[in-house]
């Protein structure tokens, strides 16, 4: 297990790396497995829902996304998990189809902790990627409204192309620092109940 340093948009040198385009992965070897494990450990350490390899300074087309569990509040106020959290590891991911309709939500990024802005993206996307063994996989019409894989993968693929979430915000007055409003190490559940955004 290795937690890697997440590089930042607000550091000039690190931003140059984040603005670079990542290269396709061609070798599905032990080195790739180690990179992916480090990315998962780093994403979880920071309570994130997604991480792209360039965010740890590796310009290769690899992303990890952890779709949070869905919990529903019962009439007695208790929370019941109706769908478990799901981890996705995607190598060379691509959006091959996207809806015309878009939905807006607050997005954050582990490379600019605390800051969130309103971004509109397609309602659903069809994703093509390779798994750790190099086998092609598809997720058809993945939901992209809310913290769902279809949403988060769009943010992560942007990282692979050197596009930052701040460049996707149409109304920059929506970009705000929520640091003071957030508890130090909130659990996903508490964040959801507080309706606070999470970082990718
Ligand atoms: Zn990000």
Throw out a few tags for this protein.
single chain; 200 residues; alpha+beta; 5-stranded antiparallel sheet; 10 strands; 23% helix; binds zinc ion
Describe the structure.
It is a single chain. Helices cover 23% and strands 32% of the residues. It is built from five helices and ten strands; from the N terminus they run ααβββββββββααβα. It is α+β, with helices and mostly antiparallel strands. The protein has one domain: Peptide deformylase (Peptide Deformylase), CATH 3.90.45. It has a five-stranded antiparallel beta sheet, with helices on both faces. It has a three-stranded antiparallel beta sheet with strand order 6-7-10. The chain is globular. The longest helix has 16 residues. The two termini are 20 Å apart. Bound molecules: zinc ion.
Summed up:
The chain is of the alpha+beta class. The protein is built from five helices and ten strands.
Q: In terms of topology, how is this protein built?
A:
Elements: H1 12-18, H2 30-45, E1 50-52, E2 62-67, E3 70-73, E4 79-83, E5 86-98, E6 102-108, E7 115-122, E8 124-130, E9 136-143, H3 149-160, H4 165-168, E10 176-177, H5 188-194
